[in-house]
């Protein structure tokens, strides 16, 4: 497999798998809105997206991950949020997620980030084991909270 950084040229390849990722987490597909969302992130350099492609077929997308930049005021450094990662059903158990995360970690080091952050649903044991195998550990220093907006 090859890991490449996505560009606008990859939108047609990426959008269908992104839709499947959203559906995996219980969201409605919204293919047009999903594609537009990805296009905005890429066009405005608001995220970094890595694609895992099959060695023998540039049109076979095995998985992707999307990272958003953030910053730590306490460490005065960049932080990367590994917001999305998904592996196509027929590419699972092939270490696709590992390869994607290793590329993300390499990019984080190259940008002098202090850390990467990732969250997953509390029952996604496979994801948790994969993250831990790469070196992520559960944050015991800070407890995270969310404030839903427009949820009235």
Describe this structure in words.
This protein has 152 residues and is α+β, with helices and mostly antiparallel strands. The protein is built from four helices and five strands. The protein has helices spanning 11-24, 31-43, 96-110, 125-134, and strands at residues 2-5, 48-54, 57-72, 77-87, 115-118. The chain has a five-stranded mixed sheet, sandwiched between helices. A hairpin with a 4-residue loop joins strand 3 (57-72) and strand 4 (77-87). The longest helix is centred in the last third of the chain and has 15 residues, at 96-110. 23% of the residues are buried.
Helices and strands, with pairings:
Layout: E1 2-5, H1 11-24, H2 31-43, E2 48-54, E3 57-72, E4 77-87, H3 96-110, E5 115-118, H4 125-134
Parallel strand pairs: 4-5
Antiparallel strand pairs: 1-2, 2-3, 3-4
Helix pairs in contact: 1-2, 3-4
Q: Which structural class best describes the helix and strand composition? A: alpha+beta
The low-confidence parts are none
**Share of residues in helices:** 25-40%
Strand content: 25-35%
Total beta-strand segments: 5
Rough outline: globular
- End-to-end span in angstroms? 45 Å
Radius of gyration: 16 Å
Biggest β-sheet: count, sense, barrel? 5 strands, mixed
What is the residue-mean pLDDT, rounded to a whole number? 94
In order across it, which strands form the biggest sheet?
A: 1-2-3-4-5
Order of helices and strands: EHHEEEHEH
The count of helical stretches stands at 4
